Sequence to fold (147 residues):
Amino acid sequence: MGLLTMLALGAAASAQPACVPSAATNRRIVSDFYRQALIDRQPGPAFARYMAPDFVEHKPDVPDGTREATAAFLGELIKAMPDPKWEVLRTIAEGDLVALHVRFTPAPGAPAYAIGDFFRLKDCKIVEHWDAVDGPPKEQANPKPRF
Fold:
């Protein structure tokens, strides 16, 4: 194989996208983001790596709803808790959407919160996030657990 052919093949290979969007790819991206940002407690680097620059946060507690504001909000949340723990129990991916069912425990022995996290992706970057958070129940009338 000649040098020009090898250069042409190398250029063609590098021109292909590094990421091909699909439900499976989106599931992996969100799972990797969640692990780094919350389970490993590194929201700043996770947001820089996985979020689009124009990311939109829909959580009403986050000022401005930007990527930077959301990363800072999560960083402060993590610092304020003794030993927070996020456990992803279920993941559903369809098209450009990924949903997570999460058990969040703010400290060892504390009652757990149920979280539904919803992400929209575009071109292998997270572009939007919504969540629904339900605190520990005061009374459990239903004998079946929420997790």
